[in-house]
Amino acid sequence: MTIRALEKISVGQNGIGSFILQCKRLDIHYCDHSGSSRGMNAFIKTHLSKFAQKNPAIEFAVSPRPRKHPVMIGHYINGRQKSICVANMEPSQILKKAELLRDASGDKVKRVNKPVTSINESVRGIWSPYHGNGMAV
Amino acid sequence: MRRISRLGKPSGARLAPAARPLAPLGTPRASTRPSPTPAAVKINTLRFYSSRQPEPLPASLTSGGKSAAPEEIVEEVEVQQFDHDQSQQQRLFVPPPRPSVAERADTITDTLYTPATTAEGLESIGGLGSWWDDPAHWPETSDFVGFKPKQKVQEPVLLEAAVRRALTETLLMKQLGQEEQLTGPWGLQGKAQHDAVLALDVRVDSDGNATVTGDLHAVADGLVVKDGESNVDSADVLPSTAEALAWKSQADQSWKGTSLQDARLKFAVIKRVMQLTGQVIPDQKLADIATARGLLATLQKPPKPKTLSQEIVAKKQDLVTLPNVAFSPKRVTRGDKDQALGRYKLIEAEFRKRDLQDGPLSVPKSREKKHWNGEA
Amino acid sequence: MSRSLLRSLFELRAPSTSRPAAQFKLPARSLSTTPLRRNSPTTTESTTAAAQNATAPSSIPTNPTEAASLVTESRSQTPQAAEALYPRIPQQVNPPTSESQATIAQLLPLLRTQPAHYLTAHIWGRPYLVTAGDQIRLPFKMPGVVPGDVLRLDRASTLGSRDFTLKGSPYVDERLFECRATVLGTETEPMRIKIKTKRRQRRNKQVRSKHHFTILRISEVNINGPEAVGL
pTM here? Predict the structure, then answer.
């Protein structure tokens, strides 16, 4: 009989030992001239410094993108990215969108019906009709 | 082809060779007229010239000209050429030599002459080659010098000194009865004149009418433009910042109440300020200026930042100093991302290895930039 | 004693001590009625009676603020702000019967010795049966929390291991366990489009809805001994 290595490998679960924010980078694009960027420009001037101070784990990259609508792009640890066009939005609305990008995990959105997801084995085991005292019919 | 930007250099009737009558007609020189512009002020202008190596001249230009062509054809060519008056032309550009013209085949009397059947081995004639691209043919004196200096003065103290000087000069011209001079060109003199103007005393009454006392005639003589006036470096027209600060600390500030309701006075002051500092007051702000103080405030108001990044650098230092925020003043391109990652060097090296790209892998300069540099 | 219980006694694992217990000392209060029930086939008559006692109909409050008081150990907020948003609600406990005191003193140490534990934590009136490491997708977006915040869940209706279950009526005394959850973030789901039709009308209306859900990860489940309630 050959000796086989254990197939079980450790699975990373965020938040058990330490917590790592999934959003690692937020690209903020604006245009200097077009009117759809007015809210975004105001957001950069008024809200961004406080938001960046509160979220030191995120790298903020602000750069112009002339003649384009303003966009925020979140880059996540899993390699995916999520982008939101914030044309014609008020600064407070844009702040909400920035929080949405920060809170997101970066995974594809999917419908989940069960509230609890677990990779642990069942604590009380699986019920079997052939064990125990039996059932009186 | 030469671009229009290069032909824009000569300014005024005196300087325009194309506007002159054709050479054979021989009208009197226009240079005897008084100059509409003051003597050229030496200003640090940017000079754009072709970076191309000058090519050798065509044989028709180097062979020295007139000998080969019949007389009547030379006359005809001369009409089409620029005027060859060296005393005038030296300051503008160096015209190409007269081209030589080959003899026509039907006029050749030599019996040994046989017309060529191929172009090989024949000397080329005609064309100017890269004559206009040679910087040596465009002396520095040919650069266009405008009324307004190219470098704007932004320093508030210097602006205050300039407004005071312009106001005093305008007031004294008006006071001396030289009303027609208010709309004319004034000379740009150096620091001595500046100090002399600022030494004059300006008294303002309650209605805003100002009177200047002092040696008015000496200053007025310096203002009037004479032909052949010496060039003054624009850096010396206004004092240094330290000198202006010293002047301001002991100067009487009551001159700022001078009324500028008189349109001729206002025009003259604003024109002079523009000549001294390079600051132009836009039309929509002109109507709001009623006093010298208002004019000064308009000038001293810092210009609005053109871009968001400029504004943030100027006003929002707390945002720039945050360690997790990076600002880019320009659009971030694919190349920038590669450079940030260090991938750019590798791509360049791989291209070089395969002989695909010589030199840096960067975006080529725009075509317009080539034209600005005077290249074809 | 069952074979599995014996096995788990040998596989005894030290309880998680990632946080000092003294930090979360709660004010002394009267004991709750938290009878202990044994699930093993060797159930005695007395504990079965206790189990019936425990499963007697009890009114579980539906008001979220009563059903679960969250103690946020937040990174992002000051303790005062967290307290203002989620005020600490003391647990209403009934005095325990002498029988339940006896079963807790006797059987809770056995429950603790079995390694894997589960509990039914209640968050805003809803039960979630979780073990350490599980992820909960709450059916709402919890206001005032940011990713990385640690919540202490202090309402549980059951604590259990493989063979033992401690049932609360309605809740287990909060001094008997420590359960912490880390806020992972907010997720959403694909937009739902419900088409509303009316009979004999050609128009139909599309109703769109998209909700946001807070994601929690159970980072810690500790069960304290009977000495935590003075037994």
Answer: 0.67
